[in-house]
Amino acid sequence: MIKYLEFLVSRLFGTGVDTLVLWICSDYIFTSYWGSYILSPIISFEFAVMSNFLWSYFWIWKSRIVNKGCWAFWKRFSIFNISSVAGFLIKMMFLLLFERIFGWDVVWCNLTALLISGLFNYFLTDVWVFRKPKNLPEDMES
User: What ranges do the domains of the chain cover?
Assistant: First the structure.
């Protein structure tokens, strides 16, 4: 339960990063539908992925990190990014669905879609990206 609460706190920060970058891109950089509703969310997503990974690596699941070398860091980030892309595809599906159904602004569609994709992301991060090493004692987990 504690890990999930830490995950939520870190993802709130990531949501802030995502929303800020999305707003800047969709309001000040891109003017077309494609730029605002497709390209802007992709760019904001990658900023949020790095933020979320750093929170996960250095705070939430730091006790599960056995090999802390540079190569291991980037390998784990690559796996994290792949799992995040799966969550992103779910988010984009709902973002576009909410825009079609309700006609909301991209920022509101994004925030609502993030609520749904967040549960999926937690599951993948916990059981795949930062899975508990077999030799880690239960009391070392926290």
Answer: 2-131
